[in-house]
Amino acid sequence: MRKLYALAAAALVFVSQWASAQADLSYYLPKEVTYNKEIPTPKDILGYNVGEWHVSHDQLAMYVRQMAQLSDRITIEEYARTHENRPLYLLTITSPENHKNIQGIKEQHRKLTNPKASGNLDIKNMPGVVWMGYSVHGNEPSGSNASLLAVYHLAAAQGPEIEKLLRETVILLDPSINPDGLNRFASWVNTHRSKNLVTDPNSEEFAEAWPRGRTNHYWFDLNRDWLPLQHPESRGRLAKFHEWKPNVLTDHHEMGTNSTFFFQPGIPSRNHPLTPAKNYELTKKIAGFHAKALDKIGSFYYTEESFDDFYYGKGSTYPDVNGAIGILFEQASSRGHAQESVNGVLSFPFTIRNQFTTTLSTLEAVQNMREELLAHQRDFYSEATKEAGKASVSAYVFSSEKDPARAFHLAEIIHQHQIDIYRPKEKFTVNNVTYTPENSYIVPTNQPQYKLIEGMFERRTSFQDSLFYDVSAWTLPLAFNLEHANLTSRQFKDKMLGQKIDSVDFPKGQVIGGNSAYAYAFEWHGYYAPRALNTLFGQGLQARVATDKFTSAEGKQFDYGTILIPVSGQPLSLERIQALMAQVAQDNGLTVYAMSTGFTGGINLGSPGIYNINQPKVAMLIGDGVNSNDAGEAWHLLDHRFNINTSLINAELVNRTDLSRYNVMVMADGSYGSISDFGKTRLRNWVQQGGTLIAMGNASRWLADNKIGTFSFKQSEENGTSRLPYAQMSNTMGAQVIGGAIFETDLDLTHPLGYGYYSNKLPVFRDNRLFMETSKSPYANPVVYTAKPLLSGYISKPNLKQLSNSAAISVSAIGGGKVIAMTDNPNFRAFWYGTNKLFLNSIFFGQIISGGSARAEEDAH
């Protein structure tokens, strides 16, 4: 046994040394191709062979910029900056002759998406356009490192074959879709790299620190942001995508170390129904080129398993609803420089070689299938327009009369997707909702982007398959909690369309009533009302919140949650307060009212029902065990969107950090095992002394288990069948997963957590099986799922039964403080504008929730 172990160890050392020694160009590049020696290799500029070290983003940027200077085949442009101010580059690679007419080629190619012009195009003489995208997940680095080889090969390769490829193809190459994450990961693995490569999976090199490099600066998965467009990386990239409308887009990823290599098509039954069958056929035909190339170098692979093409917000699926072919590549990850796996030692150079090989096979496929791909794009838009003409829905209308900012943000997203959007010409009423030109938007479906429009607005509750790689619903009007309607051909006529929107403008704020020497008031309906209040707090102003309705002397009725800013007793002058109120109204799209008297109808402005509120001092617990996506979404909302200072505190520090400087603490979904028993006591004491503790997802269960707040949860109903086929286990268990769907809740508009809402029916997003019992206190559940809650997406019947009438939010009192437990994430992927207010209300108004309206801890013992 010892002898066998020694032989195995020696073999591992040999493989490790081989992997390092073989990481030169001869390992990667095609043997039959010659290269221009005047063009520098990556090693000439970086000082090391590709795969010897993990390339950092600044090194990668340096190489591609220099190649663009040296090669007449390459031009480069910066299309965006990340949150950390790193540049994102797009390289255009084609023949020098094509570069001379690149604008003409682009304009002609875009005509393929215009059915009125595409029929006259000569596709036989048009180049194909392919977009190569690498490493949207920063800790899946083989893609971005392979892009070094792709750029070198396309710049330096010589001979008639490469010249023909460049004449017939325009290659758009994005070497790093996620620079911030790539840099974070490269720094980690390079820091922990040994001179003699260590392949032991337990080594620190493979134990990347939280939050890891998969995500961007705010810990978002950018591969889910193609549709919501909440980040600069995505917005910049999409603008270039639509500027070109590529025929094929590749998306290079990594998966588990013990896997092999995957390329699409994925599981056929999990394609989105709006994607035409031709897309699948072409994807499968392209797959033949990948298989041939990988066979040639001896790499194992698989296809039509594991992955799907359903959610249109992913890089490999978004192209499918835009007349292109999206191709997902998933390479087994070395997660460092070389790591043991069930298939032997997996070296970083090996992972790079597979990504580079399929880069070349993609180019070969695009060149060979050029006319077929161009025809598919032309036919896609032509057929979409025909389908639109027969569709039951002729237009979608949406509005938010009391909060124009939410409607603005949805219109902004739609406009960025190259969809025509209009204001109504005149006001009209549908389903008892009146839509006005000032606050509403209409999206007619009879336009080339018909399929994408349907993908944004549709509600779907029946599916061919019950398993989803990602979410099963993302209906945007529901995500934004907007008044909206589907207009049939009887309800909609072209004459209803007013001005076509060329640019979406942020709502204008105003102060009504002139200047006041008494007080100012603004309702909490506005999406950015919390930002306005936080700005006022930052200037040292005192503020109050109304817990009941009242009517001004001028007849304006103010809703629950109205903010009152007294003029007297403030640290600023009368004139400064006047100017400040005008500024916050303008910056936040709010209507602020100058109050002339406190003698109001209903409660008066000096009423005990108008509470003083304190500025939130927010801390959020982070670190191992915490769901970094959910934490990042909360951080992004508070910091980036609302300018609320948020201290990010490692959960382990609760055991010894002074918590008294905070009055609000956020716990995102996750487990908090690093908090000791002493830390739990300190956390409980902090709440008792008046703190507001907000927990989402499984953090709520953790608090309940540790008696920090009193919440109870239903037990999941498991399949009672005693015996099932083993081969069905994965599908049977997977069907019980709630991957992401939209449900209806009932909201108490009089509760502080309901302030600013004006409809008691609120759509929420859910992606877990955490079912919370309603409280015995009749006031402790401000948000409850309705009896028939499913609005859009997939949920199994047992889970739907559990969810019906369960609590979405429960409030528990401990001493002078509150624990607010949310089963779901109200900030999901930054585009769930409709439920953000629940989270922000918890932060601003948790302090005023009456102990009698919460489930008191003492009642449970």
Automatic annotation (TrEMBL):
A GO MF term: carboxypeptidase activity
Keyword Hydrolase part of the UniProt annotation: yes
PROSITE patterns: PEPTIDASE_M14
Keywords: Carboxypeptidase, Hydrolase, Protease, Signal
Catalytic residues as annotated in Swiss-Prot or TrEMBL: 330
Signal peptide: 1-21
Full protein name: Zinc carboxypeptidase
Source organism per UniProt: Pontibacter aquaedesilientis
